[in-house]
């Protein structure tokens, strides 16, 4: 009977040690659960890179005003952001979210009801007549596509390939800096883009001219599959296939063309819309999840369209 029980214990993943039953699978499960819990805590404590600039501005404000990082100095910062700095409302809302996360991670302080009430009262400052313009959502504007293509056409091989890819894909800055050569399927005119906001991969189409530009770039620089697509040029002129920051990319694109990644993004959306593409078709290329967001923030009626219908001087 005892031998039969031992066999049952062995089949269940347990062993006999010094006459005691040790449940190995139970131990392994508890160990794995503890490791998972620890990992999730680390994820929860992670501050998104997009929040860093707002956090740095708050830290700088505390130093300039000789205040400690407390809820009182935070409320002060949010208040003067409106009354003195006159930031746009959408920027202010991003600031609130970033600093709420910062205080939660750094000081284990959550926004209780009293803090939320104070924030809500500060937000009401935007309702005053002299600040209503700060609630306007203008954002980056599309540019004339022919003008942009003329600028891109005279760039060197590397800059031209990068600009055309950004234009075709309407990529966000984080999507551009994360691209690797191995993400391109040039035979199929496809590039596989990781959409950070949606945490998924998404295929985007490339124009034949863009494919040729990328092929020339790869050949001229001897790029390998593991190289980052943008990379960087060292002071000595040598290319390194490393990942650069979003800030560095924005500055580089501005230097090359005079425009930002979001100018590129809105230009492609506006062009596809004017060519007759519906929202679903545009979203398939840009990677927008919400058609409402696409319609609200990207598809304002073009000035040229308005001009066309109010041209009364024939």
Automatic annotation (TrEMBL):
One Gene Ontology term from the biological process aspect of the record: DNA recombination
Pfam families the record matches: Phage_integrase
Recorded superkingdom: Bacteria
The UniProt record lists the keyword NAD: no
Entry's Gene Ontology molecular function annotations: DNA binding
Keywords: DNA recombination, DNA-binding
Domain Tyr recombinase span(s) in chain numbering: 136-311
Family: Belongs to the 'phage' integrase family.
Protein name as it appears in the record: Site-specific integrase
């Amino acid at each position: 009977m005892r031998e039969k029980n031992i066999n049952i214990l062995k089949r269940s993943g347990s062993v006999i040690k010094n006459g005691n039953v040790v449940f190995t699978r139970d131990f392994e499960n508890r160990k794995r659960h503890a490791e998972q819990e620890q990992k999730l805590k680390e994820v929860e404590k992670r501050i998104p890179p997009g929040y860093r600039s707002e956090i740095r501005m708050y830290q700088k404000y505390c130093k300039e005003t000789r205040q400690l990082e407390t809820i009182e100095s935070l409320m002060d910062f949010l208040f003067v952001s409106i009354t003195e700095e006159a930031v746009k409302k959408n920027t202010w809302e991003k600031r609130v979210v970033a600093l709420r996360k910062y205080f939660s991670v750094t000081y284990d302080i959550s926004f209780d009801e009293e803090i939320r009430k104070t924030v809500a009262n500060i937000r009401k400052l935007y309702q005053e007549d002299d600040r209503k313009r700060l609630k306007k959502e203008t954002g980056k504007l599309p540019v004339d596509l022919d003008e942009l293509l003329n600028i891109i056409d005279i760039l060197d091989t590397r800059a031209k390939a990068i600009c055309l890819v950004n234009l075709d894909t309407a990529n966000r800055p984080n999507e551009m800096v994360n691209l690797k050569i191995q993400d391109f399927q040039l035979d199929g005119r496809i590039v596989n883009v990781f959409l950070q906001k949606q945490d998924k991969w998404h295929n985007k189409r490339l124009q034949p001219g863009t494919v040729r530009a990328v092929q020339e770039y790869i050949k001229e620089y001897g790029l390998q599959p593991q190289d980052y697509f943008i990379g960087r040029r060292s002071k000595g002129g040598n290319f390194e296939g490393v990942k650069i920051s979003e800030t560095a990319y924005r500055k580089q694109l501005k230097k090359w063309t005079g425009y930002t990644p979001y100018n590129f993004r809105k230009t492609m959306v506006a062009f596809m819309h004017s060519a007759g593409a519906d929202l679903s078709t545009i979203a398939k290329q840009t990677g927008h999840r919400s058609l409402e967001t696409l319609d609200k923030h990207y598809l304002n009626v073009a000035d040229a369209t308005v001009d066309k219908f109010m041209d009364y001087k024939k």
